Amino acid sequence: MSKFIDYLKTRSFRNNVLAAIITVVVLLLIAFFSLRYYTKHGEGLNVPMVKGLTFEQAVIKLEEAGLKYEVDSVYIMDQPPGIVIDQDPDPNTFVKDNRTIYLTINAGKTPNTKFPDIEFKSLREAQAIIESSRLKLGDTTYKADVSRDVVLQASFGGQPIKVGQIIPVGSRIDLILGDGRGSEEVDIPQLVGLTMDEAKFSLKGSNLVLGTILYEGPITDSANAIIIKQDPMLVDSLTKVSIGTHINITLSNKQQP
């Protein structure tokens, strides 16, 4: 043990230790500078702003900066065609030279879409379907129909359009909707011989209103009282009345001959 301690105190040991330390330091320096050279540490550039430029302008700017590019396209109705609408990496990002910049260009040609099925859909539902198909809701007009705010017909450019028809994205679709009132005039129902409950049901189905209720003779059983007269009456000269017309009735417990 004493011999080993004596060896540690010799010049030879100190020289060996110093040589080992120098070797390690030299190896670390070689590795460090080699890595810097390989990765070009400290060398690079900021990505230029090309968003909003035309594709041609963006290409010139990227090539001058020593950057490559790849292109994808989408269609946005409110943006001019051929404009860079997005870039990756973002502007002023520090990158190595020869880095690929990914550009998204607004397509120059309007794409087409198939017209969806919106017939007999509610206005709210039809609007959602139209917008999801990248179309726009145009004018809405109403037509007499028992259905309210329901699509009866769709048109494009003044012409009726069918499901599956090919039209440009962004087209305006005009709709004809039901007004919920049906025809302006309806047939007068025959109420004579019906009870009041039966008459109410018939009038509701015809969009008419029960008017004045008169009675003839003593009414001992109102539930089974029969209508013996109505005004207006269904006759050859009068078969239709306006929607909402009040129909007056006369009830009686007497059986009509």
Account of the protein in words:
With 257 residues, this protein is an alpha+beta fold. It folds into 4 domains: 1-39; 45-106, Trypsin Inhibitor V, Chain A (2-Layer Sandwich); 112-178, Trypsin Inhibitor V, Chain A; 185-253, Trypsin Inhibitor V, Chain A. The protein is 26% helix and 32% strand. The protein has 5 helices and 16 strands. It has helices at 2-8, 11-39, 55-64, 123-132, 196-205; strands at residues 45-46, 68-74, 84-88, 94-95, 100-106, 112-114, 136-143, 148-156, 159-160, 166-168, 172-179, 185-187, 209-215, 226-231, 240-242, 246-252. It has a 4-stranded mixed sheet with strand order 7-11-8-9. A 3-stranded mixed sheet has the order 2-5-3, covered by helices on one side. A 3-stranded mixed sheet has the order 13-16-14, covered by helices on one side. Strand 8 and strand 9 form a beta hairpin. The protein is elongated. Residues 38-42 have low confidence and may be disordered.
Task: Put the structure in a nutshell.
The chain is of the alpha+beta class.
What is the number of domains? 4
The gross shape turns out to be elongated
| H-E order | HHEHEEEEEHEEEEEEHEEEE
Q: What structural category do the secondary elements indicate? A: alpha+beta
Tell me what the CATH architecture of the largest domain is: 2-Layer Sandwich
Query: Could you report the average pLDDT, rounded to the nearest whole number?
Result: 84
Write down the CATH class of the largest domain. Alpha Beta
Rg (C-alpha, Å): 44 Å
Strand order of the largest sheet: 7-11-8-9
Q: What's the main sheet like? A: 4 strands, mixed
Overall strand count = 16
Low-confidence stretches are 38-42
N→C terminal distance = 144 Å
Considering DSSP H and I runs of 4 or more, what fraction of the residues is helical? 25-40%
Quaternary class:
single chain
Q: Give the CATH topology of the largest domain.
A: Trypsin Inhibitor V, Chain A
The total of helices stands at 5
InterPro entries: PASTA_dom
GO molecular function, one term: protein serine/threonine kinase activity
Keywords: Kinase, Membrane, Serine/threonine-protein kinase, Transferase, Transmembrane, Transmembrane helix
Organism: Pedobacter paludis
